[in-house]
Give the backbone structure.
Amino acid sequence: MAPHIPRRRTQALFATVLAVGLTAACGGGGGGSSSSKGSNNAAASSHGPITFVTGKDNSGVWAPTIAKWNSAHPNEKVTLKEQSDNADQQHDDIVQHMQAKDASYDIVTVDVVWTAEFAAKGWLVPLEGKFALDTSKLLKPTVDAATYNGKLYAAPFASDGGLLYYRKDLVPNPPKTLDEMWGMCSIAKKKGMGCYAGQFAKYEGLTVNAAEAINTMGGKIVDSSGKATVDSPEAVKGIAMLADHYKNGDIPKEAITYQEEQGRQAFEAGKLLFLRNWPYVYNLAKTDGSSVVKNKFGVAPLPGVSGPGASSLGGHSEGISVYSKHQGTAFDFLKFIEEDAQQKFFMEKGSLAPVVAAIYEDKDLVAKYPYLPTLLTSIKNAVPRPVTPFYPAVTTAIQDNAYAAIKGDKTPEQAVKDMQSAIQSASSS
Amino acid sequence: MSTVAQTRRAVPRRRGPKSLNAGQGRRGLLLVLPTIALLGVVIIYPVIKAIVMSFQKDAGLDKATGMFVQGGYAGLANYKHWVLQQCNTPTGAVTCGPGTLGGQTYDALWVTLFFTVVAVAIEMVLGLWFATIMNRTFRGRGIVRAAILVPWAIPTAVTAKLWFFIFAYDGIANHLLGLVGVQPLLWTGDAWPSRFAVIIADVWKTTPFMALLILAGLQVISSDVYEAAQIDGATKWQTFTRITLPLVKVPLMVAVLFRTLDTLRIFDLPYILTGGGGGSGHATTTLSILVIRQIRAGFNSASALSTLVFILIAVVAFLFIKFGGADVIRRPPGTAPKRRFWRRATPAQATEGN
């Protein structure tokens, strides 16, 4: 019995919402049909209290934001539900609640790489029609990452892009192209330090870095319909670049074990000339007691073939659950977090990269976070990681093969071929 | 037993004592019913559900709508995927290549068995040693016992993170190796260092458990036997092999059984320590890690693999109890099992067999 009621309500809700576009007030008039009770309830309650689900709020941005909303909307109160701070656990937690058709998860925070999976499972309300979201002010890559099959399924909340951290005491002008950067490795060699590192341990970070190398060289992992297109000369060039420079020592041997934190520590200890990492490193490297590079480093966009390289896009979006009973309120709350005031607050309080382009030109913020214009360049040139509902299998395919290729266990050609067939078998199982 | 039954059948049925017996049986059944129901909910139902799911196809993508649709009945396809390494492609089934989970079944199986054999063997030897130390009477015994038990008290996730830092490239492990002139190792990057990193961490963590179980066994050995041996002029080694080992054998084998089953499904330690990585990408991926990875990509196929792992562990447990002398189902005295001709002849023989 229990599972039927929410489903009928949801269906009724859809019907009323899409057909009439009625407000909560006039919902009572629509109740002549067989499921009159459900329809009444659905319409009347499409606004009401909701629960907002997000990963552990370490930077403390959500409590004040939600308090601000709640004081303005006493009848549509938002409750914060924090998950763990581990991305895999957050993913599995959402999956379990969606499979149980749980109406208590109204808005879920979706990592950019989960959007396609959740959308294809039919768990997210497409943001169209009554729920059409104005995306004109948003950065395009963040919107692309939340789009599946031509429909927007989630509202971008915060973005993230890769930056090149460099030692400005050794390299006064940051490299604009990859060739320039690798050329500067002789400086590192003379100083007896490593030249370049990113995230090359076998985990999601390796997918990010391998995808950047492939995309920067002009390759593409999957096309817009989700078909594997990674077996291309461009992708081989990208993987070969990492493999060659690992072999010749420009990328130090231990970098194969680096996640974000180990790379940051090595850079702060003065062991690296260049580091590819996320914006969070900036403040830490400036203020950490153990940092020996406090005033000796700068940030630049990731170098590419002839201009900025293609960063992989990080960040999160907010999706409305199809099982939510108060989708109207949920949508209003999404619009609320896209407003400049909130986006600016996220940046100030939590260093979360805004998804609204204009914020990056805010003078106060730029004075406080000098890397913002660089980050904007990075995100503008960013390519979302493969938008595919089979993302878990695709990222395994990329990680395993890129890892083997960088270590020299297989040729870049073979690695790219194996990625291709592994992605194919994942998406047609 | 059978003779009793025959004599019963000879006498008329429905006699007083029998009905009383039956009533007791019914009451007994009533009393264990809650337990059985609970076990049914938490053990039997999930196992059966997993088996049922393993014959279902994972949701596939409807190309027209881009939405997932239910997969339907799959037959043995999920099992073929893992056992025969068959992957589907647009051009038909092919052998699963590198970078697919299906292609890692046997690598994961060997790694899991390797971990089990090596780690449990080391733990058994060390555990026996620690237990003998803890069993002696000396000053500061309490402190030694507590110190030995500390690793067991630390949660595995914390242990794994601890060893992750120890085995980092700049970590203490490489620093110590440097002192004896060994080049730094990529503990979480190369195949064999990463496997031994997992084994070292596992041994560190679970030897106390082994030692504790063996200690319990040692403490029930009467001191008379040792005194007698001393009077007979037995050496320490003789005392150990002729008295301690045979008498501690049952608790020892139970401890080994527990650890073997634990290690066969080891997940958290390698998952946190190495992420299943190392070597050419999955040198420390155990069967359980593979199952968890597959769960993210599709429950039904993961159910097939977890059913296979379940069967593997059940078989190993069965072999242990049958042949290894891990007598976890202790019978009441006087009801010795019949026709167990394969049971050990002497304790010493069985110990050698293991």
